[in-house]
Amino acid sequence: MTPRKSGSVIIAGLGPGNDALVTPEVRSALVQATDIVGYIPYVERIEPREGLTLHPSDNRVEIDRSRHALEMASEGKHVVVVSSGDPGVFAMAAAVLEAIEQGEPHWRDLDIQVLPGITAMLAASAACGAPLGHDFCAINLSDNMKPWELIEKRLRLAAEADFAMAFYNPRSKSRPEGFGKALKALREACGDDRPMIFARNVSRPDQTIRIVPLPEVTEDMADMRTVVLLGSSQTRIIERDGAPLVYTPRSVAG
Fold it and tell me: What is the Cβ-side half-sphere exposure of residue 105, based on CA atoms within 13 angstroms?
């Protein structure tokens, strides 16, 4: 029997947490979906309705989740795979495309779309000003899918290039030592007191923003609900009444 190809898979970003930051394009996709697939906390953000089936799953089954979505789309269903933030930033878009490349040939003929969302590093940057206002990079500090040696190499090279940096998955219960090792590498490579920003539960009602000079940072300041930003050597802090503003100038002297 020839698989049906009338279904679709949309990989959508739900933003950093505040429902007001979900894009209209993503809202429209959710309204039209027959099935929602994703990590349990993200699926819980979707309002149940008649005609919609929710498929929550654990965080470490991304490829299985992707295959399930593609199989349902092959049956004619309209599936939305949800991620927090932007689906293309350390999230489900790459997982679904990996499943397509390695999976059934007819999956390549499905209607596949990736809808962007506001990722946590952008929400965190906006919450304190514009620390990512010049060249920056994003690094996932989890060593679940890559060796720590590669993470440390990237940290040192990014510091040498004087990028501002955004760090995802800084410190989990299963690997609490990782952020401490990252701090050691950064202090050795940077050698200055550039600001490190801890944005916890960014965009949510209980959001907290903490700005700490790199030499004074302790590893317990971060957890898995925290996005960490590190300024470049050019990043500045504007002191004022209330919360300070942090920004990295758009130009660098020759």
Answer: 1
